[in-house]
Amino acid sequence: MSIIKLYLNKNLDDLKKKFIREAIKGDNEAAKKIIAADESVVNYQDEKSGITGLMIFVSDGCGSMVDHICNLPGADVTLEDHFGRSAGLMAIAVGRSDIGKRIDERITQDILSFDPNFFNRAAALAGKDKATNIVRLFANPKGESDPSP
After folding, report:
1. How far is CA 48 from the centre of its chain?
2. pLDDT, tens only, 64-91
3. CA 49 → CA 52, 93, 120, distances in Å?
4. CATH of the domain spanning 3-115
5. What DSSP assignment string belongs to 21-54?
6. What is the pTM of this model?
7. Coil, helix or strand for 1?
8. C-alpha atoms less than 13 angstroms from C-alpha of 68 in its C-beta half-sphere
9. Cβ atoms 44, 52 nearer than 8 A
10. What is the mean pLDDT of residues 58-63?
11. Is 16 exposed, middle or buried (0-12, 13-18, 19+ CB in 10 A)?
């Protein structure tokens, strides 16, 4: 790897770590500036804990930052820390159903952008043999053809 790439990677790592630090401090404006410089920082997970900035904002009950991150097209709101906790689960744990609802809305948006008919097909399959059909739905999410024999 070239010296320039090493330097750029170090700076990117520093920016990602700085984003986590600003989230911990609760400095929303500084966090937004870092996001503006590089949106990928919102998906950065701390090496030791796996926690993301979104998870920190959720646990602090900072709905405005959660909303800001949820509005970013590249944000992965389903990431889990090393203990299997997602931002949505953290929202429930801190008693912030409003924040949990916003995260659920983002997850729904992501599903529908992938497959606009997902929920219609899931509802249609639910009346049949549920376990088998749900497996088929996820095995063939676009529904081009029935993967059953």
Report:
1. 19
2. 999 999 999 899 999 999 999 999 999 9
3. 9, 17, 38
4. 1.25.40.20
5. HHHHHT-HHHHHHHHHH-GGGGG---TTT---HH
6. 0.70
7. coil
8. 19
9. yes
10. 92
11. buried
